Amino acid sequence: MKKIIYILSIFAITTACENNKKIVDAHGNFQSDATTISAENMGKLLEFKIDEGTIIKKDEIVGLIDTTQLNLKKEQLKASFISIKSQSESVMSQIDVLREQLKVQKSNLKRIKKMYKEGSATKKQLDDVQGQVNITQQQISSVKAQNASVLSQSQSLNVQIKQIDDQISKSVIRNPFSGTVLVKYAEQYEFVAPGKPLYQIQNMELIKLKAYVTEPQLSEIKIGQKVKIGVDSTTEEKSIEGEITWISANAEFTPKIIQTKDERQNLVYAIKIDVKNDGSLKIGMPASVYFE
Predict the structure, then answer these.
(1) How much is the pLDDT for 20?
(2) Mapping DSSP to helix (H, G, I), strand (E, B) and coil, where does residue 134 land?
């Protein structure tokens, strides 16, 4: 009799423990959300001081592409700009001379018109002075058009200089955000071209978990919802808080790495959860999700 009571007691304790055990709502793996940084200019990679696994800060200079040819071209453009500017100043001085000349001619024209009315000047004298005024005005218009062409060249050179400055600034490789270098694709002194991958970086402080839920579970979750993430450890499951940031609008078959062969026939929806990393979470690690 005592033996039967003991067995029943053990069974009741076991059943209670199983009932208290929290049911996993979803399974998933931590995924790479890395960014590949590529070269934005062409040339030899004179400096490139990063290694895989190192943490680099935002705006930290990690490399430099040779800018010798760009600087030489910039100097050439600056010399042309100075020459164009000198031409513009010369043209403007011509306009100043013509304006003074026109001022005198208009004064003479006014005087001749008065004399013509009084009968002390002939029609030819009036026409001659008026012709001089007209010619000078045409000359001023012509010189102004010439100066406009010079100014246009000057503006074009100024734009080209700014483009060179932009290329030079892009030759300095600045890290866009703080993170850990996952992969290094280039080495110092290699020749690189725009678009060539240099390194891959990921912010490991905030890692993304991709998990899968069934259609009935969709009504239980929403973007911005806080959830509990369970990660295996040597002693017991470690619990971390996460936040749902994305829910797929399309169903898909359950990935092989998540479920058994039979369960893989089920249609599920992918979700993504942002999780703050204390340093223990790694890409590819499995995790469980518990909806609160």
Answers:
(1) 40
(2) helix
Q: What angle do CA 64, 67, 72 make, to 5 degrees?
A: 165
Dihedral, CA of residue 270, residue 274, residue 278 and residue 284, to nearest 10 = 30
Strands (E), the chain: 26-31, 35-38, 43-48, 55-56, 61-65, 172-174, 179-184, 191-192, 197-202, 206-214, 226-231, 238-247, 252-253, 267-276, 286-291
Q: Provide CATH code, domain 23-33+203-291.
A: 2.40.30.170
Q: Is the pLDDT of residue 88 over 70?
A: yes
Tokens, residue 264: 């893989």
What pLDDT does 176 receive? Answer: 94
74-102: b or e for each residue (b if 16 or more CB lie within 10 Å)? beebeebbeebeebbeebeebbeebeebb
- Per residue in 7-34, pLDDT tens? 333 333 343 344 345 688 898 999 988 9
Which residue type is seen at 94? Answer: Q
Domains in the chain: boundaries: 23-33+203-291, 36-67+174-202, 68-170
Instruction: Report the largest interatomic distance among the alpha carbons of the chain, rounded to a whole angstrom.
Output: 153
Q: What's the one-letter identity of residue 219? A: S
What span, in angstroms and rounded, lies between the C-alpha atoms of 143 and 219?
A: 77
CB 27 within 8 A of CB 212: yes
Assigned CATH for 36-67+174-202: 2.40.50.100
C-alpha of 125 from chain center: 72
| Phi/psi of residue 41, nearest 5 degrees | -145, 170
Per-residue pLDDT tens over the stretch 147-169:
777 777 888 888 999 999 999 99
Stated length of the chain: 292
